[in-house]
Amino acid sequence: MARLAVTRPEGAPERGEAQEAILDAAEIVFGESGFHGATTRAIAVRAQANAALIHYYFGSKEALYEAVIARRAGAINDERRARLAELHATGAVTLEALLDTLLRPTISLGRDPSRGGAHYTRVLGHAASGTDERSHRVTSAYYDGIARVFIAEIAAIVPGLSREGAVRGYLNAIAVAISLMAPTGRVQDLSDGTLADDDLEEMLGGAVRFVAAGIRALAAPGSKPGAA
Amino acid sequence: MARLAVTRPEGAPERGEAQEAILDAAEIVFGESGFHGATTRAIAVRAQANAALIHYYFGSKEALYEAVIARRAGAINDERRARLAELHATGAVTLEALLDTLLRPTISLGRDPSRGGAHYTRVLGHAASGTDERSHRVTSAYYDGIARVFIAEIAAIVPGLSREGAVRGYLNAIAVAISLMAPTGRVQDLSDGTLADDDLEEMLGGAVRFVAAGIRALAAPGSKPGAA
DNA sequence: GCTGCTTTTAATCAGGCGATTAATTAAGGA
DNA sequence: TCCTTAATTAATCGCCTGATTAAAAGCAGC
Q: Is a pLDDT exceeding 50 seen at residue B84?
């Protein structure tokens, strides 16, 4: 009964500490184990909360999952839009600047331990690689809008790039960013002991340079006809 | 008792039809739902086999999962090595040819409905984005070896590319290929009705061109020092 | 210090899970 | 034909899951 009033009141929700603790814990557990692998009990234990609180505040495991994504996605996409507006205001719109604007909020969040670190990025990784209805619903609900914006921007700034190419380039950018930010230990395994340093600007710069060159290559002649 | 003799005999295993049917079904269900989301019952139903057969032949759900990956990974990596040897024999080793060699077996498998289509690629997508012990074990057991080979080849063929850059480039190549081959419906959502055609050579060529340009950009000056 | 509300708790539920079992059928060698 | 072994089945086990509930514990306003 009181649940509806708690999850989403009209004025100022003022989410309590317990709810935030549950969201933080859920982010970690969902990131580690995926939706099905995560259990509400494990989330409750990590949040040091009673298991029933999850259903009291969020209604269901699925609703909690969406709440985890909604919390971060809103902040990330707001930051993207703000940076994009700033970019247009200064007039210095380049492909590299666009990609930096697209990737910086996510990667920077992933490097910030005080805001959950890479846990959310791992959740996103699961959602992005999932083909189930839930993953599809979540990605389209929270990321399709911003995707269309950036796809249009990319198509406009790169000469000769088709909309198809812009879509592909955008998806590749996201794939690269997620593989960069949701470390699976693969880099360490393959680097023969030489650990890659994890400086934010270096990671971001590398990803931007890689994707920018890739997108420009998609616009180069030989893109459409079969030039094996 | 007899199980050990069935799963991996010494001479010629000669896997029966039932086992193949289970593997095919498991590939589909694991691909659709991930490891935790899949149930042995759903796999058995799809394979039109009794649920107990899974444990009789494979011992556990987890062992079945590994068997699914082992079956395809072996074939894919054998093909990669053969193509690589052929490439060196003809002497025409370019970055594009290397990437084609790396990606073609996977993408071509993913486009072949008679060999499971994109289902295995979706399984790989889950494993690649997973941070759990099982995903890590599977990827390192079946893909680290071939990864080292191609990383060394890439580092050797691209002037000025560090080993770090080669590792990053390789991982980006895999990320792009998986996002390309494990379609989540995202492309259709973002393409405004203009469906991207799915010609194999065009998909493969686009991915190769994208990744090759990206890798070369990683080797360009400004890669190591902070050139924001 | 009541009273009415929200928050939190412990206990419990029905259902689905992976796994196991014992019994049945099929196949092959002596 | 008989007997051993492999393949297959239906039935069931104990466990863990998400979810529910009724009661207890705070905590305002009066």
A: yes
Asked if residue A227 has pLDDT above 90, the reply is no
What's the mean pLDDT in B46-70? 94
B153 to A77, A214, B44: CA distances (angstroms): 39, 20, 42
> What is the rounded CA–CA span in Å between residue B57 and residue B52?
9
A209 touches chain B (CB under 8 A): yes
Q: Please give the Cα distance from A17 to A48 (Å, whole number).
A: 11
* Interval B91-104 mean pLDDT: 96
Chain A neighbors of B223, CB-CB under 8 A:
206, 209
Return the pLDDT at A106: 93
Summary mean pLDDT of chain B: 87
| B179 contacts chain A (CB < 8 A) | yes
Q: Which of A124, A114, A113 is nearest to A180 (CA)?
A: A124
> What are the C-alpha distances in Å from A121 to residues A109, A176, B44, B195?
9, 12, 34, 28
Q: Nearest C-alpha of chain A: how many angstroms from B33?
A: 7
Q: Which residues contact B94 (CB under 8 A, 6 or more apart)?
A: B157
Nearest Cα residue to B203 out of B121, B127, B137: B121
Residues 6+ apart with CB under 8 A from B185: A131, A136
Closest nucleotide (CA of B5 to C1')? D6
**How is residue B90 written in tokens?**
């003809």
Which residues of B fall within a CB distance of 8 Å from A158?
none
More confident residue, B5 or B100: B100
Question: To which H or E segment does residue B74 belong?
Answer: helix B61-90
